[in-house]
Amino acid sequence: MLRIDPRLADPAGAFAHLRSSVAGRLVAAQTLLPRELRLLVVEGYRPPALQEQYFSESVEELRVLHPDWSAVRLRREAGRYISPPEVAPHVAGAAVDVTLCTDTGTELMMGTEVNATPTGPDGACYTASPDISREAMGNRHILITALTAVGLVNYPTEWWHWSYGDRYWAFIAGAPHAIYGLSGGPSLNGESAPAG
Questions:
Q1: Contacts for 134-137 with beta carbons within 8 Å, 24 or more apart?
Q2: Which pLDDT score, from 0 to 100, does residue 182 have?
């Protein structure tokens, strides 16, 4: 059974929903983990308005730090950490932020927290970062092995971010196009499954 973490819960509970193809892959990946471990879903679907809010906040933070940057540069730099709403995989229900925990719910050491800033000085958020402990490397290896085995792809600046069927997945998998685009809401156009 997958575990759901409410730390990024939105009022409608959309965070706990995914495309059924993504949820099914997570369930399959769960069976590949050592018996004492569980996948911990932190965030799946993100409503477009919330994505817009996160992106706008990121642009504004950069504007304060770099008042001389143009609007184009601010948007580009903000997009290095959080996707612009029009291309964001979470709004398609095709992406999931996930980590590992024990069967009692204790999170494993992964080198950083989920959603830590990838542009930090040590680069520890990068999936292949050498700047994390041996224990964190081992735990990431367990996560990577299980999720890639079921066809999910990782966004390499965020060890926790995995997807199936979005634009990035299509690019990495060599698919001719994405399966999923911007969703109409938590129902995910009739193809939805609670992550747990």
A1: 135/109, 136/109, 136/110, 136/111, 137/111
A2: 67
